[in-house]
Amino acid sequence: MKKKFLVLCLAARAATAQDIGTGLMPDGSADTYAGASLRSSSPYLKDDPRRLSVVPLLHIIFANGIFISSFGTAGWQLSDTPGVEYGPLFNSRNERAPTDSWQVAGTQRIKGTPDAGAFFNYALGDALWLRSELTYDTNAHGLAFSAGAQKTLAQIAPHQNLTLSLGLSIADGQVMRQQYGVTGGDGSPSGPSDYRPDGGLAAVNVGIDWNWAFNRNWLLNGSVNVAHLGAAAADSPFISQPNLIRYSAGLAYRF
DSSP states of 113-144 as a string? Predict the structure, then answer.
């Protein structure tokens, strides 16, 4: 469902802060990948069933630092300093309309315009990175910020590693109200209730990615990410629970 990405986008910002620059893929590689993954997540809309989807995997990084991802991210890594990454960043988004389903009735319409911002990443050493992202939401005309840490445990088994991540995301009131607000409620038990959240914490995330390069070109990946929504997001009338769990398993070819 196209609205699913939109409801989860703020919750995912802290997790995807790790997916920037030369660490765009879970193993931190600067290679080119293509493949596919199976993805599922816990229901977040009231009375919404769990769904399984197949999504493409694509990551390209050019010699000049420009990178493109099938996750809807593109940017330019401008730093020449080892252990420091920064540059412009663009995130695509899908649309959402209050007529998409009864669960999102009364929400603001979201157009599919890209968001623009910048990222800054800093290596502390021993495969530990601090990552951050500041984004201007071109729909809500507001700001969102995410920050986190990423640690890679290399060679936990032959050709296998784990990447652990922890982060949080915050947004101003304009972004939060567009993502989670509801207007025009009728006050009935079965109908939507008016809700205008303030800016603040959108979510706290923890994640784990497992990678197995079982030959020179092929990579198998599995990941689990848990997002705990902040109070302003979790209290939205159309959110069914404060904890969102996302799972994925994918196969990619490294060029």
Answer: PPEEEEEEEEEEETTEEEEEEEEEETTTTEEE
